[in-house]
Every structure is written in structure tokens, then in C-alpha cells.
Amino acid sequence: MLRRFLEAWCEENGVDIAGEEARQVAAGLIAWYQSDLKDQAGLRAVFETNIPLSIELNTLLGRLASL
After folding, report:
1. Comparing C-alpha atoms, which of 49, 57, 63 is closest to residue 12?
2. How many whole angstroms separate alpha carbon 15 and alpha carbon 12?
3. pLDDT digit string (tens) for 4-30?
4. Stretch 45-61: mean pLDDT
5. Contacts by 35-38, CB closer than 8 A, 24 or more apart
6. Backbone angles phi, psi at 59, to 5 degrees
7. CA-CA distance, 15 to 36, in Å (whole number)?
8. Is 29 strand, coil or helix?
9. Which residue, among 11, 2, 65, 56, has the nearest Cα to 29 in the 3D structure?
10. What is the structure's pLDDT at 14?
């Protein structure tokens, strides 16, 4: 699920999944996963950009938080 979210985020934002920005997001996803899966605000902090999350990414975010 984390990989799927990262791939969707990269596609939506035109970021290469092998790039530094994707690595930073992946690291944030893993840190969030290891700490508190129910903390949606913490996960949203991983994506501190000026680009709003799409409906699809918000749906995936909800699914991640409900694991």
C-alpha cells in the first residue's frame, strides 16, 4: 500500500520515483508507518508541498490510516 501511494504521488506530481524527492517522501511514509498508522495529520506532513492531494491520493491516505 505504501508503494502504491508513493507511485501515485510521483505520477501525480511528475516526480521520478528514483529521484531525491521521491526518496524523501518514501522515507516519510516509512517513518509514519513505523510510528502511528492512525495519525493522518502526521502522514499529511510527509507531503508538505504547495500541491494539493488529489481525490485519489486522499482516498489512499484514508486507507493507509485505517490499516
Report:
1. 57
2. 8
3. 888 988 988 899 999 998 888 888 888
4. 66
5. 37/64, 37/65, 37/67, 38/65
6. -65, -45
7. 26
8. helix
9. 2
10. 92
Helix axes of 20-35 and 2-13: crossing angle, nearest 10 degrees: 150
3-state secondary structure 30-50: HHHHHHCCCCHHHHHHHCCCC
Report the alpha-carbon distance of residue 63 to residue 37 in Å, rounded.
10
Grid cell, residue 31, equals: 517513518
Say which residues have a Cβ less than 8 Å from residue 38's Cβ, sequence separation at least 6.
65
User: Do you know the residue count of the chain?
Assistant: 67
Q: Which three cell numbers stand for residue 54?
A: 488529489
